[in-house]
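[Meeting: bench + compute handoff]

Bench side (C.D.) handed over the final construct sequence. Compute side (W.E.) agreed to return the predicted structure before the next meeting so the bench team could plan truncations. Sequence as handed over:
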Amino acid sequence: MPRRTDPGELERLRHRTSEINRKILDLLNERASMLPAIQEVKARLRLEGYSPAREQEMLEELITANPGPFPDDAVRQVFKEVFRAFLGLMETEKNTDLRVSRHSNLPDILVRVGDRTIGGGTPVIIAGPCSVESEEQLEEVAAALAAMGVGFLRGGAFKPRTSPYAFQGLGVKGLHLLAAAGKRHGMAVVTEAVDTRTVHVIAEHADVVQVGSRNMANYELLKAVAACGRPVLLKRGFAATLDEFVQAAEYIAAGGNEQIILCERGIRTFEQETRFTLDISAVPLLQGMTRLPIIVDVSHSAGRRDILSSLARASLAAGANGVMIEVHPNPAIARSDNQQQLDIAQFRALLAQLQRFLAPV
């Protein structure tokens, strides 16, 4: 006789399946709860967090103990996915230790430079010549910028150049000129450190120490600027991913200095119309990835002055906390990057176009 159908049989089987699913989930969560203790012990023993050999050993133990009906290959596949999920959980837990990441669930970091703040409210303008060339050149620029309300004076005293025969900056003399001009006109000074040997002297004269694109992955320099006692303006490497950029910032934060400004300055692509390609998407993406303020160096991105106003407006419209622009009294005779620097009248016109972004709400 055919077996009689019990209307409740399927529901009982489904209920039992659900019970087993919940037991599996409870066991997985119990296993997950052991991760912190395991990682702590491994850290004390100086062992790697992930061990492929240990994973293979666990798989072989499971295959040996497998009573079926799952075939061995299916067991391997299932538990490899389980192990991969736990490895991902370990990485997530590790990321919660990141200091500038959004994973920390801490408020945004505001960078304090004297009585000025970068991040949060009104965007800032950082302007000045590519290189400090003379006292007269710097004084003319600084006086004009201060009169326009610009609070940050940039200028290169030490210049890393592609050609060893190009102008390398005035060095310590340039630092003295920058510091004096900033003091005369009430401006905060931003200048670049190019190696670990000069960080301390730069920190004595500058209000913000810049790490340039070429040095984003110079980890010893990042450690040195972390300890210099000044806010750090970190530029993205022109071939760096956003994750690599953020990890470079973590080097500075891990050294005890969270006063970091991220600077997008363009990346290298196949396009030749501009010096680099401005990655405008980096602004909102970095805001989602980090708690740090983000500015955009439009001069180095473009390498040409005719589109700087458009790029500056686009950067502020995308949510940037400021823009960096190079200004020279006479760009035609500038000793470096003359094609991307604005003269004072051109900068005044650009600033007028930015006013709707800069006016306090």
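W.E. noted at the follow-up: The domain at 9-95 is CATH 1.20.59.10 (Chorismate Mutase Domain, subunit A). C.D. will use this when planning the next construct.
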